[in-house]
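Kindly inspect this chain:
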Amino acid sequence: MATCSGGGVRRRRWSILALDAAQPFDKEGQAIDVFERRGRLKIAIIGFGKFGQFLAKTFARQGHTLLAHSRSDYSAAAASLGAAFFSDPHDLCEQHPDVVLLSTSILSTAPVLRALPIQRLRRNTLFADVLSVKEFPKSLFLKHLPPHFDVLCTHPMFGPESGKDGWEGLPLVFEKVRIGDTGERAERCQRFLDIFHHEGCRMVEMSCSEHDANAAESQFLTHTVGRLLAKLDLKTTPVNTKGYEALLKLVEITCSDSFELYNGLFMYNKNSTELLERLDLAFDSLKKELFGKLHDVVRKQLFESSP
């Protein structure tokens, strides 16, 4: 009996020691959990169409709380991603999101922003956008938002097609337009940017004006050439070259986006008009070069064949 009793005491001692040894690890786990909770954001996505839902999938996977609002009823799509859908923007703003992210079309951004009941938001809410032009939303934010709201302009230079297999190496252009100087507000802005950094995006900090100057060539020109080729109604052939297949792919990619997006790239990037003029001049110059050489060949043939 004494032996059994002693064994029971020893077993209880070992249990207590094991429990004590586990305490530091439990505290460490709790600390990690608190850190992760603090790292999560409550993000309101205004404009929950194709691109808004594309971003929401990654936001949700990283554990952020999502709110959604759109003119169309995307409540089923929102529910499938674990997001709460609000048809009334007043109800959404009363949820006090950390970040209000505009994912609207370029053409509808101004009326959507003006219609938001921003008085229902917390005074230091972070406003961000993902539009393909940057000077336009920057000026809108600065014009319509009181100075106690933070402003971050971003452009993920990829979409549901190019980013379907992950965002590794894809560029995220951003400008911290107006971020409060308190640690909490700077940290919140960084946590939002960290969503993209965590996915492996190439983070490119650039002014909005510099972005638009570069995007006119890298984006608007690409869309223009793709839509121009689409007007030719190109078809695949039995003798496709790699270059021709690349052109067909360009038509497919650019025309999968709405004409509204393309029109927005033209209307709201002041560099686009100049680029179109340069494109016209380049095409005229190329035609003159070709017809000039043709003229020389014809003249040579005419004079050489003369008696």
Summary: Strands lie at 42-46, 65-69, 84-85, 99-102, 126-129, 150-156, 171-178, 202-205. Residues 1-6, 9-25, 27-35 have pLDDT under 50 and may be disordered. Residues 41 and 192 are 8 Å apart (CA to CA). Residues 40-206 form a domain with the Rossmann fold fold (CATH 3.40.50.720).
